[in-house]
Design goal:
Layout (H helix, E strand, L loop, with lengths): L27 H10 L13 H13 L1
Helix pairs in contact: 1-2
């Protein structure tokens, strides 16, 4: 795998997609992708989020 300058690689354990809410629903990989891509788009001020900001966004999504 070759990453271009500025690219990010998000590595996680099985505990992230398998995190469950009080109703027993797993977080899942689709929601991980959604959290990582949140507000990503042309002209978005969050397009170039730092690794820390990405982690915070994923954490907030899981906690939510």
């Amino acid at each position: 795998m070759q990453l271009l300058p500025g690219a990010k690689l998000f590595v996680y354990t099985d505990g992230l997609p398998e995190a469950m809410n009080g109703e027993g629903n797993m977080f899942g990989t689709d929601r991980i992708i959604k959290a990582l891509n949140r507000d990503k788009g042309e002209g978005s001020e969050r397009e170039d989020r730092s690794p820390r900001e990405l982690l915070e966004d994923v954490r907030q999504a899981v906690d939510g």
